[in-house]
Specification:
The structure holds two protein chains of two kinds. Chain A is α/β, with parallel strands linked by helices. Chain A is built from twelve helices and eleven strands. The chains are: A alpha/beta, B alpha/beta.
């Protein structure tokens, strides 16, 4: 049974003040309609948005920054990072990034940022119109991968311990931790079930199986691919906004001695896989577009036993051409006879 | 690997010698600061400081990790700048990367190298490794095809190699002084010369040549698991992370570049 406590608001704020002494807290905060991770300052604890939905930036923005000098040694931040308000979809993305950067060859930059940071996740209560976690095997609340998880309930939180590091965060705060009573546990179940239903309702028009590759497998040559790229402008936003996309290029700094930069790349760009001889396996846009779906639902699962799509919907929000991955999958399902 | 080892840091190497192979191809002899132990068929990311890096297979024998040979065709910005360098320049190496050839798998068999154009450099490391222990093979034969006599690399080594192995040479077109074969490399592969059951063929070259050589070998009844391919794709990291080199779910840089045709035959677009 998970270790869980009820923490009232006043106690919670004193815990946050204590954490701020040790950590740089990158907390989900509102800017307009959207949430962004930003460093928390002690006078603005009320700016933290615990519930609602996922932030605009995926966690990779911090773990593998868009442009990073990788030829020198890793320099840790002054204070270790704590991510606060991480949603379940972004924790799921770490199941791809962790093995990708920590397999046979460990990336020292990713490894040290990741293991040096703490993750305090929180439940999603107001999924966005682009959210579809429940359709790809997820749910709008975290069940693993966090150090602590917060569920907003009444005027406080249910705090669940997910790791030893998470338990240590609560050390010295015994007076704040109340044993969870049955009523609180039941309320939490109800809130979570409602959130799940909300995601399902948002996606009621889209029909495709959770085992997405079953549909893709027979649709390599489908007309659907060419159809959807009519509005694609090859901006690569779907790649960059995605929480699991992690393709990168390496470049040497001009006139410097062995200084290498690592930057985000995207498989939608025409030059992505072009060799020195000029050849490329995916010269046509529809082939590059298709590649992204195959990567999410076949190649990444083959590599890391996990879907490369967490249903966070960032690619849908970011797309200039209003291409909706759910609509693409729906149409492919119709074509393949999965949906009639 | 130790998590503190930085795979992006280069091993500095001194450029000791440059030789001209053809109008567009030069060989570069490098002395790394430490011996660069590798297996034939593996490759390195070669850095020209301040310019960039690109992957090249070592063309020299793996028994000399203290002095490496790379044979490079001028094809873009980085190779243009590399070609402009003179001995004494400082270069950088990352690697070695990739699986390389499992030469022991070919012991007791006829080893047939089918090589096209600038595929000779990676084939050369395998060739030298095999020739050094040629009693372990039933035979070693190389079929090499180039566009024209002027495009033949290592032409100065061919007569010495012919004392050790059967080496058949062909070019697509040539003037009247050419006394070797004419035609694409597959024309050198004749049924009566190949004992399909006991032959392992290694194919290295440009994609279109690899495709037709593989089809020809299948035609000659070689089993897909006895056709060995050294694949090429756009690469950056060399360590199975940046995903540029993928064929389906396979990382050419880490799972390859050496595959049997049996491992690839059911995947789409392998020759692109």
């Amino acid at each position: 049974m998970a270790e869980r406590y009820y923490v009232g608001k006043a106690h919670w704020l004193s815990i946050l003040h204590a954490w701020l002494e040790t950590y740089t807290i990158l907390a989900a905060q509102a800017e307009g309609d959207n949430l962004y991770y930003a460093p928390l300052i002690p006078t603005e604890l009320s700016h933290i948005v615990y519930d609602r939905a996922r932030s605009v930036q995926p966690l990779k923005t911090y773990l593998i920054p868009p442009l990073d000098e990788v030829s020198s040694d890793y320099k840790p931040p002054q204070k270790p990072w704590m991510f606060l308000g991480v949603k379940a979809c972004d924790l799921a993305a770490l199941s791809i990034l962790d093995p990708a950067f920590g397999g046979e060859f460990t990336d020292p930059f990713y490894a040290q940022r990741r293991h040096g940071s703490l993750i305090v996740s929180s439940d999603c209560t107001a999924p966005l119109s682009s959210c579809f976690c429940t359709r790809v095997g997820g749910q709008p609340y975290a069940i693993k991968g966090f150090d602590l998880n917060l569920s907003r309930i009444w005027d406080g939180f249910v705090v669940e311990v997910g790791s030893l590091k998470g338990r240590q965060l609560l050390d010295g705060h015994d007076e704040a931790l109340k044993e969870l009573v049955k009523e609180e546990a039941e309320t939490l179940l109800k809130i979570r079930d409602e959130a799940r239903q909300k995601v399902n309702r948002i996606n009621s028009d889209f029909v495709f199986p959770e085992a997405v590759y079953e549909v893709l497998a027979g649709q390599r040559e489908s007309a659907v691919w060419a159809d959807y790229v009519k509005t694609c402008v090859e901006c690569g936003a779907c790649n960059h906004a995605c929480s699991t996309c992690h393709c990168y290029y390496l470049d040497d700094v001009t006139r410097a001695d062995f200084v290498k930069l690592r930057g985000w790349d995207g498989c939608q760009y025409s030059g992505y896989a072009v060799t020195a001889g000029g050849g490329t396996p995916r010269p046509e846009l529809k082939e590059r577009f298709r590649n992204r779906y195959y990567c999410k639902f076949k190649y990444l699962p083959d590599n890391y036993s996990q879907k490369g799509c967490t249903g966070c919907g960032r690619c849908i929000d970011a797309c200039q051409g209003q291409i909706d991955m759910r609509r693409v999958l729906h149409d492919l399902s119709v074509k393949s006879g999965e949906v009639t | 690997m130790n998590p503190m080892v930085n795979p992006y840091q280069v091993l500095p190497a001194l450029l000791e010698e440059v030789t001209i192979e053809t109008a567009a191809i030069k060989s570069f002899y490098l002395r790394p600061e430490r011996p660069f132990d590798f297996k034939c068929g593996q490759f390195a990311a070669l850095t020209v400081p301040g310019v960039g890096e690109a992957p090249f297979a070592m063309a020299s024998s793996a028994s000399h990790p203290e002095r490496l040979k790379f044979t490079v065709q001028r094809a873009g910005y980085m190779t243009e700048r590399l070609h402009a360098l003179s001995p004494g320049a400082r270069l950088g190496l990352r690697g070695p990367f990739g699986n390389g050839f499992n030469v022991a798998d070919y012991y007791g068999r006829h080893l047939l190298l089918v090589v096209g154009g600038v595929g000779f450099p990676p084939a050369r490391a395998l060739l030298h490794t095999a020739v050094a222990q040629k009693e372990r093979f039933l035979s070693i034969r190389m079929c090499y095809g180039a566009r024209s006599p002027e495009d033949v690399v290592y032409s100065d080594e061919i007569s010495a190699l012919r004392k050790e192995i059967q080496l058949d040479l062909t070019v697509d077109s040539a003037g009247e002084t050419w006394c070797e074969s004419l035609g694409v490399v597959t024309t050198l592969l004749q049924t009566d010369q190949i004992d399909a059951a006991q032959t392992t063929a290694v194919v290295i070259g440009p994609p279109v040549m690899m495709k037709f050589a593989t089809l020809k070998l299948l035609d000659l009844n070689l089993a897909p698991e006895n056709i060995v391919l050294s694949m090429e794709r756009k690469m950056y990291c060399g360590i199975g992370q940046c995903r540029h080199c993928m064929i389906d779910h396979l990382f050419i840089c880490k799972d390859g570049p050496v595959f049997t045709y049996a491992e690839l035959q059911n995947l789409p677009d392998i020759w692109e």
